[in-house]
Amino acid sequence: MTDAPGRLHAAIAELATFNDDVAAGGITREIYTPTYAAALRRVVEWMGEAGLETRLDAVGNLFGRWAGTDAGAPVVLTGSHVDTTLNAGAYDGVLGVLGAIEAVHALRAAGFVPRRSIELVAWAGEEPRFGTGCVGSRAAAGELSRADLDRLRGRDGVTMAGALRSAGFDPDRVEDARIDPATVHALVELHIEQGIVLETGGEPIGVVGAIAAPHDFRLTFRGAATHAGATPMDLRRDALVGAAEAVVAVERIARASSSGTTVGTVGVVRARPGAINVVPGTVELDVDVRDSDAAAREQVVATIVADARAIAAERGLELELAEIVEDVPVESDPAVVAAAQEAAAELGLTARTMISGAYHDAMIMGRRVPVGMIFVPSRGGVSHHPDEYTSPEELDRGVAVLAGTLARLSGQ
Ligand SMILES: [Zn+2]
Predict the structure, then answer these.
(1) Strand partners for 373
(2) Are 80 and 96 in contact (CB under 8 A)?
(3) How far is the CA of 96 from the centre of ligand 1 (A)?
(4) Residue 2 above 70 pLDDT?
């Protein structure tokens, strides 16, 4: 379908050279850094070569427009992100942007003329440099205020407002990035799966029916940090032993969830004072519970918290609960799902309808506009890591399905 085989693969390899930490391996390209800006300038050039008219919005979201014959019709948006976490892989996000450019090349080569304008987007800051991910799409969805820009702070202490200023943007203009939902017909995002469902099933394409959203919270157990030698076993208030029971409870309760799709993880444990001769006095557990079924997820969260309270009471510990983030799961739009399924079928590709366990910019925008996602396999499910890999053939299949999906959505 494309007249330049290998162009996409070469572009992915070239973008990977925009990297702030070559020494440690993988790719480090965080939003609002000079390296990110340089990478984005290259993407602007590639968008230009595909005949797209580019513009940057107030928070650094990059758009590339292929004007349709019906200039007033709501547009079809497609894209992802080209920022990375630390020491990450070459495909997460990048495929959805560079693959969309390749899809435009393919559609042009096939003589396709869109009725609705097709707008490509590279969302700013999908990865959580400032603690919260998807800042670009949150701004576009009208979910990021001026006050948020001062509140959101990275590990280096820099606020998002400060980072915007140093990258040449005006934080006071954040509201300008808002997209009127009435101007968007649909949004479709091509992405690597970041899991092993497609690889395990031997399926080349996933069509996302729903995007799971996290409910993250912190459980802090407080006991008594007494001497490990001088405190008899029956006189202890060991916060870590209580927390350990809670960790096991998270796994048990998530497994028993009514939806069958809930996942629960304790990814962070902080035990203090952290000395071999002191009974742990305070332990923080950061808990992440996700599901596309919000009711099932909240039932799991409530049960975990109740169990943690019972464990704390039993052991004479105090328990404190602090919310971190609670996002809303999003269902894909049936018309976008159908377009992607038809596009895959036309190419003779098996498409599995599946849930996205990871969140994406499409989830944020999905609260306002009809969305859908197309997945391609990730080898071993490895992502946010130098070993992240999807084969050239798998990438090409994803691009072909995206092109067919865009043709259907933009012709309607
Ligand atoms: Zn991503």
Answers:
(1) 189, 208
(2) yes
(3) 8
(4) no
- Measured CA to CA, the distance from residue 122 to residue 165 in angstroms comes to 19
Domain extents in the chain: 7-212+329-411, 213-326
Cα–Cα distance measured from residue 129 to residue 155, given in angstroms and rounded to the nearest whole number: 8
Q: How many A from CA of 92 to the centre of ligand 1?
A: 5
Question: Which of these, 262, 353, 363, 338, lies nearest to 303 by C-alpha position?
Answer: 262
Which residues touch 254 (CB under 8 Å, ≥6 apart)? 262, 263, 264, 289, 300
Q: Could you tell me what percent of the chain has a pLDDT over 70?
A: 99
Cα(111) to centroid(ligand 1), Å: 31
Q: What is the Cα–Cα distance from 226 to 232, expressed in whole angstroms? A: 10
Q: Which of 121, 210, 189 is nearest to 376 (CA)?
A: 189
DSSP 88: B
CA distances from 158 to 128, 132, 163, 174, 299 (A): 13, 14, 7, 17, 37
Alpha-carbon span 270 to 243, nearest angstrom = 10
Mean pLDDT within 172-193: 98
For residue range 227-270, list pLDDT tens digits in order.
999 999 999 999 999 999 999 999 999 999 999 999 999 999 99
Tell me the β-bridge partners of 65: 53, 119
Q: 149-184: b or e for each residue (b if 16 or more CB lie within 10 Å)? A: beebbbeeebbbbbbbbebebebeebeebbbeeeeb
Contact 372, 339 (CB under 8 A): yes
CATH annotation of 213-326: 3.30.70.360
Alpha-carbon distance 52 to 234, whole Å?
A: 72
Measured N-to-C along each axis, helices 334-346 and 392-411 cross at an angle, to the nearest 10 degrees, of 130
User: Tens digit of pLDDT for each residue in 210-229?
Assistant: 999 999 999 999 999 999 99
Report how far ligand 1's centroid is from the alpha carbon of 67 (Å): 26
Report the CATH superfamily, name and number, of domain 7-212+329-411.
Zn peptidases (3.40.630.10)
Q: How far is the CA of 203 from the centre of ligand 1 (A)?
A: 20
In the structure encoding, which two tokens stand for residue 120, read together?
A: 């490509």
Phi and psi at 4, nearest 5°, equal -135, 75
Model pTM?
A: 0.88
